[in-house]
Amino acid sequence: MAEIVLEGVDKIYSGGVKAVDNLNLRIEDGEFMVLVGPSGCGKSTALRMIAGLEEISAGTLTIGGDIVNDRPPKDRDIAMVFQNYALYPHMTVEQNLAFGLKLRKVAKPEIARRVKEAAAMLGLEPYLKRKPGALSGGQRQRVAMGRAIVREPQAFLMDEPLSNLDAKLRVQMRASLNQLHDRLGVTTVYVTHDQVEAMTLGDRVAVLRDGRLQQVDTPKRLFDAP
Ligand code: ADP
Ligand code: ADP
């Protein structure tokens, strides 16, 4: 687990678009922080900078007390969950869960332990021998989350992970995410354009507009304000 701190962070894309403008945000150790705002407000860019998938144009990014501005994604001890799941179609669920750990040379018994634990947490035990093509959208999304969980990272980063699911599944998955977070307590940064999702999931919600942070507060104080 780790605190994530952004100080004066800018992102200017080649061509001159200022996608993120002087972002100052402290995400506490173990906190579930939601970045919310309309399409194009810069939330994805902010998340991708935390992940190291986009370079920071100005400012400082700290994860667990270390400045990580120039560190590649693999050296940041974070796990990202994508909207499109990014599963390997030719591998079984079990192999998908284990793959990232194999690459990192984690010992086999330890891989087996983590895969078993994640599968139990996510209700994936019946599907371990199946390939992604034989799963429903909700099951695939659970596998994507499982791949992040087995890494036992300092932080989870999630970019609209539920947006490809139908409304009923989204409600179920929100409940699952809340449970997982209660159980694991891992610092999480979660991007969505959906206010209901932001309210249900976030310990705190950061509202972005045109690349700027407008407000950051608990859902209750943000949305129940008179
Ligand atoms: P959001 O996730 O809130 O929809 P984005 O972070 O994707 O917003 O985009 C913020 C702004 O940056 C938008 O104006 C978008 O068009 C622009 N943008 C995003 N990615 C790129 C890119 N790779 N190159 C140039 N401009 C980009
Ligand atoms: P895992 O995250 O399970 O370890 P990989 O080992 O394949 O999966 O990922 C290696 C790196 O590639 C990670 O840092 C991850 O953030 C990045 N990555 C994985 N899938 C994607 C994707 N669809 N788009 C961009 N980057 C990705």
Automatic annotation (TrEMBL):
GO CC entries: ATP-binding cassette (ABC) transporter complex, substrate-binding subunit-containing
Domain ABC transporter: 4-226
Gene Ontology biological process terms in this record: carbohydrate transport
MF terms (GO), sorted A to Z: ABC-type transporter activity; ATP binding; ATP hydrolysis activity
Parent-protein start and end of this portion: 1 to 226 of 403
Name the record gives this protein: Multiple sugar transport system ATP-binding protein
Naturally occurring in which organism (per UniProt): Nocardiopsis algeriensis
Coiled-coil features, chain-numbered ranges: none
UniProt keywords, alphabetically: ATP-binding, Cell membrane, Membrane, Nucleotide-binding, Sugar transport, Translocase, Transport
Domain of life, per lineage: Bacteria
